[in-house]
Amino acid sequence: MSTIILGIESSCDDTSAAVIKDGYLLSNVVASQAVHESYGGVVPELASRAHQQNIVPVVHEALKRAEVAKEELSAVAFTRGPGLMGSLLVGVSFAKGFARSLGVPMIDVNHLSGHVLAHFIKSKDSESKQPDFPFLCLLVSGGNSQIILVKAYNDMQILGQTIDDAAGEAIDKCSKVMGLGYPGGPIIDRLARQGNPKAFSFSKPHIPGLDYSFSGLKTSFLYSLRNWLQDDPDFIEHHKEDLAASLEATVVEILMDKLRKAVKQYNIKQVAVAGGVSANNGLRNAFYDHAKRFGWEVFIPKFGYTTDNAAMIAMAGYFKYQDKEFCPIEAPAYSRVTL
Fold first, then answer.
1. Rounded CA gap, 83 and 291, in Å?
2. Taking each helix axis from N to C terminus, what angle separates 184-192 and 235-266, rounded to the nearest 10 degrees?
3. Which of 56, 117, 278, 316 could form an SS bridge with 273, CB 3.0 to 4.6 Å?
4. pTM of structure
5. What contacts 324, CB < 8 A, 6 or more positions away?
6. How far apart are the first and last CA of the chain?
7. Can you name the CATH fold of 4-127+305-322?
8. pLDDT of res. 99
């Protein structure tokens, strides 16, 4: 008998639903929220209201594309946290009601482990290679920058993480200072492809071990820009491509320096990247470069699996279903948690 998992993701500003059957993805539907662009960041109250509007049509569309009737579902997997509490409550509440109405078990998924397990999503339309356990994973997003030792789907150890800002957060804030708009990551990525990554230099942290810090880089960027603007009020417009390229190169260099140390320390050359910043062109090129230079076997997710999506939640749910790791109906959402 087939195992069919419905995944639901609502941790921030994307409402998503996906269906996985026997480990293979059948559908992955994402409804994004453009309402936040004019505010320069996600407004929690507006996000939760948009989730309420989107959750039913998104789930309906995911089941329709998968050609699966709701009565065929084996379980409902959902993001329990971390994330914005209002957004999470919409997905968690829907999952509870939907699972109970169908008489199927619920599976709670940690959003961060979902990003890591996105590497195991399989599609019958395309070939994809999955990493073997154990492997190292660099998880980089707007809220997280972590090096993770992945021993099993349910056994992950954080080897290093940011002690202040995350990489994606630093990029977004620097983009905002330049007046480039929101979200800043894709804008910086696009401009960086046209600029010189060695045009400007910014401060790099000296943090012991495998931890990260990006607040110093953000401050260095801000102060440098302020000084340049005093001499040339149109400095940003004249140099935005080079600024973006230099900022991106600095962030990537900081990330890869600690990752190289982790590979050497743990003698593991299977290295993956996950999270929203893994869509960045400069970071992807750095992974391919390290594969050639150091003999790493690298795993880079498809662009559709980098940002928040329900396919990764359904995949994590599929793993947990095999071990009958179900969730009680009274389990609450949580806004903050580690792996």
1. 33
2. 100
3. 278
4. 0.93
5. none
6. 32
7. Nucleotidyltransferase; domain 5 (3.30.420)
8. 98
